[in-house]
Automatic annotation (TrEMBL):
Name of the molecule in the record: Flagellar biosynthetic protein FliR
GO biological process: protein targeting
Family per record: Belongs to the FliR/MopE/SpaR family.
Principal cellular location given in the protein's record: membrane
Organism whose genome encodes this protein: Humitalea rosea
Coiled coil start-end: none
Keywords on record: Cell membrane, Cell projection, Cilium, Flagellum, Membrane, Transmembrane, Transmembrane helix
Membrane topology: Multi-pass membrane protein
PANTHER family named in the record: FLAGELLAR BIOSYNTHETIC PROTEIN FLIR
Length: 258
């Protein structure tokens, strides 16, 4: 009797596991720390599969049963994938602030032409931006910050239960707010480099007016780069501290984090 009851419930359990994997797996593919582009896709897929039984147990009673129509089933799975990508994308936008700040700082230092492949941005970026992106990933994993968006993902079933649809309007507003917060944080992190770059270029412009026969910018470029690198070494611990606090505050505002 027990085996017969289990076999009868197996299709429902399998569909519910598929719904959980659709949301959790999609989120893991883009979540900061666990979903870095440097991590092979099969590894990220395996992480998502390992999380399914951990998430399914507590929320199994709130998940819908397998529908009779295949169209409805595909629709439910697609909505779960969209929710997972949305939640993971919001967290990813916040973490990208450090790499964006590094790109701005590199432009102020004169390193914008030193480009390297960047899997996170899908193109080439400056060496400093790439360094900052890798530092963000290392900090997420070493400090345990990656657990905060994971907790928000698990708790998101209380805010957005499976089968209730996707709130397109609030989702777009949340993405816009996350992008705005990420850009604001990036500019705050790069503010010393922006200020130093502006002051230096004004000084070089005045010097070029006073001594037009001297190629001021070619002479000053090595010094500008060296000064920028020294400033990075001096300010990096403080930048990472500000970045970590901003991430904790940003992750606390994720849907389901409260």
């Amino acid at each position: 009797m027990i085996e017969a009851a289990f076999l009868a419930e197996l299709p429902v359990l399998a569909f519910q596991a598929l719904l959980v994997f659709a949301r959790v797996g999609a989120a893991v593919m883009v979540l900061p720390g666990l979903g870095e582009q440097e991590i092979p896709g099969p590894v990220r897929l395996g992480i998502g599969l390992c999380l399914v039984p951990l998430v399914l147990g507590p929320i199994a009673g709130t998940l819908p049963s397998a529908p009779d129509s295949a169209v409805i089933a595909v629709r439910l799975v697609a909505i779960e994938v969209l929710i997972g990508l949305w939640l993971g994308g919001i967290a990813r936008l916040l973490v990208m602030a450090l790499a964006i700040g590094g790109q701005v700082a590199a432009a102020m230092m004169g390193l914008a032409s030193v480009l390297v492949p960047d899997a996170s941005f899908g193109a080439q970026s400056s060496a400093l931006s790439r360094l900052m992106g890798l530092l963000a990933a290392v900090m997420m994993l070493s400090s345990g910050l990656f657990a905060l968006p994971l907790m928000a993902l698990v708790n998101s079933y209380a805010v957005l239960p499976a089968g209730t649809g996707f709130p397109a309007g609030p989702a777009a507003e949340a993405l816009a707010a996350a992008g705005s917060a990420s850009l604001e944080l990036a500019l705050r992190l790069a503010a010393p480099f922006i200020l130093g770059g502006v002051v230096l270029n004004i000084a070089l412009g005045l010097l070029a007016r006073l001594a037009p026969s001297i190629q001021v910018y070619f002479v000053a470029a090595p010094g500008q780069i060296l000064a920028g690198i020294a400033l990075v070494g001096l300010l990096l611990p403080a930048m990472l501290g500000v970045f970590a606090e901003a991430l904790r505050a940003g992750f606390a505002d994720l849907p389901g984090a409260g």
